[in-house]
Design goal:
There is one protein chain. The protein has a domain of about 45 residues. About 50% of the residues lie in helices and about 20% in strands. The protein contains six helices and six strands, in the order βββαααβααββα.
Length: about 200
């Protein structure tokens, strides 16, 4: 027996044959121009298609970067060279190379009106909390340092609440190649309408 209140799924997978799923991942062909206009949080009709700018750095690159920093700072470079700025002369070229290696992609996913408003509110709410914590903390520090620290702790806790709600709208690229994007963070009901990757 079918649920008459369930969001329609029959035609979703037909809207695009360049999208698949594998376990909890949404796999998208980079030739895909648009995804179904469904909310990736609740699978209801999307009110807005949100542009997500994704980035992915292969794990071996991060490992090399950490090892290089350790080798450069502790083993290879004498303290005199570090103090004279030689560390930065060797460090920044590696950072630039890492930025060039990082893979990027853009994709539009849908959000319903409710979840789009919640995403905007949690983002700007968190930003406002940061500003208030700096301003109020600075003012109170001139009169009562202890009260200033207490206010900062309070605002930090409130910020964590906003961050908790905002994080569910953050999609993570688990892998990006020249052909495909592996994406984590979409709802199970949204994933269920796409075919499994062969």
């Amino acid at each position: 027996m079918t649920n008459p209140y369930a969001p329609p799924t029959a035609d979703l997978s037909k809207e695009n044959d360049l999208v698949w799923t594998k376990k909890q991942l949404l796999i998208i062909d980079r030739n895909c121009e648009s995804l179904p206009k469904r909310c990736f949080v609740c699978n209801q009709k999307a009110d807005k298609m949100v542009l997500y700018k994704l980035s992915y750095t292969p794990p071996w690159v991060l490992f090399f970067f950490i090892f290089f920093c350790f080798f450069l700072a502790v083993i290879s470079v004498p303290n005199t060279i570090i103090n004279n700025g030689g560390f930065y002369l060797l460090f920044w070229p590696v950072v630039i190379i890492l930025m060039l290696i990082k893979r990027r992609a853009k994709i539009r996913l849908g959000l319903c009106q409710k979840h789009n408003k919640e995403r905007i509110f949690s983002f700007y709410g968190g930003l406002l909390i940061i500003i208030l914590s700096v301003v109020i903390g600075s003012i109170l520090s001139q009169y009562n340092p202890l009260l200033s620290i207490s206010s900062i702790v309070f605002f930090f806790i409130v910020f964590l609440v906003f961050a908790f709600f905002y994080q569910k709208y953050q999609l993570k690229a688990k892998k990006i190649t020249k052909q495909m994007i592996w994406l984590k963070g979409t709802n199970k009901s949204y994933l269920a309408v796409f075919p499994t990757l062969p």
